[in-house]
User: Fold this.
Amino acid sequence: MTTETILLLCAVVLGLVQCLATGVGVSASLGYDYSASPRDDQKPLSGVPGRVKRAYANFMETFPYFAALVLLGAVLHRHSLLTVLGAHLYFWGRLVYWPLYVAGTPKVRSLVWVVSILGIVLLLIGVA
Assistant:
C-alpha cells in the first residue's frame, strides 16, 4: 500500500468516527425516539451537537474528491512527493479541523480547512 492509500484508509476511519459522533449527538440532543424515526420533520441542532453534524457534513463535501484522486493515482500508478504531501495535508488538515469546528473556533478553523483543500489540489496536480 502507498502512503496515499494508507491515508485514505485513515480518512475513512475519521469519517466513521464523525458519523458515529453525529448520531450520538443527534440522539443525545433530540432523543432516541427522534433518532429512530424517519425524521420527516427536521429539527435544528444547536451548540456542540449542531457543530458536530455540520463538521461531518463539511467532511463529506471534500472526502469524495480526496478518495477519487487517491484511487485514480493508484490506478494510474501516480505516486510522487506531490501526491504524498497532498494526502498528508488533506488527512491531517481534516483531523485538526474537526475538533476546531466542534469547539467553535473561528478563523483558525478556516485556515486549517484551506490546508486540507490545498492537499486536494496537490493531489490533483500530482495525478494529472
User: Anything to note?
Assistant: Residues 18 and 56 are 6 Å apart (CA to CA). The longest helix spans residues 47-75.
